[in-house]
Amino acid sequence: MPADERFAVRRESARASVPRPLATAPAPAGVPLPPGLALRGRLATGARRPEAPRGSGRDGSGSRTPRTGRGGGPRRAYERARRAWDRPLTAYYVILGSSLLITVLGLVMVYSASMIKALDISKPATYFFGKQFLAAVIGGGLMLIAARMPVKLHRGLAYPILMVTVFLMVLVQVPGIGMSVNGNQNWLYLGGPFQLQPSEFGKLALILWGADLLARKQDKRLLTQWKHMLVPLVPVAFMLLGLIMLGGDMGTAIILTAILFGLLWLAGAPTRLFAGVLGFAVVIGFVLIRTSPNRMSRLACMGVSEPDPEGGCWQAAHGIYALASGGWFGSGLGASVEKWGQLPEPHTDFIFAITGEELGLAGTLSVLALFAALGYAGIRVAGRTEDPFVRYAAGGVTTWITAQAVINIGAVLGLLPIAGVPLPLFSYGGSALLPTMFAVGLMIAFAREDPAAKAALAMRKPGVRWKTMRRRVKKRSSGER
Description:
Layout lengths: L2 H15 L17 H10 L28 H13 L4 H31 L6 H22 L2 H6 L1 H15 L5 E4 L2 E8 L2 E3 L1 H22 L6 H5 L2 H14 L3 H17 L4 H20 L2 H8 L13 H11 L26 H34 L3 H25 L17 H19 L2 H9 L2 H11 L9
Antiparallel strand pairs: 1-2, 2-3
Helix pairs in contact: 4-5, 4-15, 4-17, 5-17, 7-8, 8-10, 8-11, 8-16, 8-17, 10-11, 11-12, 11-16, 14-15, 15-16, 16-17
């Protein structure tokens, strides 16, 4: 036989000797298979591999080998929180939720802190709470209106609000019309138990008008010149400061100055220009404090731990006593001792001290966390927008609320002089609550104007969601169910 034929016969016999897979040629019953062929047969036919007992690793030692491909619990939680914070509607919900929580908690603390004060002046225990609740209801309506207003309408209201505010602040200084409260001539009598402090609305007026002015100048590329950055923003701000200082309200003047500096900082003022305006304001403030015995006494009460024998620094010392006696979780809601005549103004400037006494360190840290969340959300709104008016206005409102909270809490802690400013959204006072809630509504409107937030809110409308679901459903034939 030739060699080629012998090679072909050997090849065919070798192919015939190889066993076929069990999936195509199953072995006859009763015929054992080699272990390797049996394993391949089970895998080919889809049989499941026997599972190892729980608690045994691949090495059979009984210990499970750790996974190294994914991060641990804290890292995964951090990534999840970061993704949640980067969602389009996060700032919207944080501003709305934190402001409402601060307002509701403020109402509770106003009721608790003002009961004894109301009974002392022969009024019902709910006297101050009722007025604050009415102001919160009106402020909630203003916040809702501001949140639904478009940005163009907010810009259009800038000049009317400024002119009305200046007129009311001038009217306060007219004898027989304006009235004095605690030595400050900054109030208008509205009839009955209601009064109005126009200087509180001056903060909102300066923010809206200043944001519109700087936005128009930025569109015309005029902010690179120092005269366009300062004029007329600084002269108008100084006019408002002069009207406030005529009534002797140093605390409101400090907040207005902080708003002015915030607007200049956002506008990109050079360091030397910013430092020059700041130095000028410091000199004026030093002169005003030095020439007033009342302000000098407040400055001398910083860091005191006990009142003077003659009765000086009484409020500052008892504010520290209230915070110190609160402990970790406080003495209980309504169980404050300092509000029984020891701490003056427990429901206004020093309501944070009563909060520390009744709710303890946990309550005060919760209030601080809410203000921190509100401020951070405002910074996010100002930093992510492309509209210069939104950037300046959101930054101005954030500066206003944050600076006022820091000054009030710093005075209660003895770290700053007592400036006489309320805690935003928390202390008693309708004149302070109304413009602040309108400003919060302003930031909510700005958060809604973000393109990604607009798209997310539009998807939540029933009509849009129904249309989207209809697009995803495939068309079926007439005979298909």
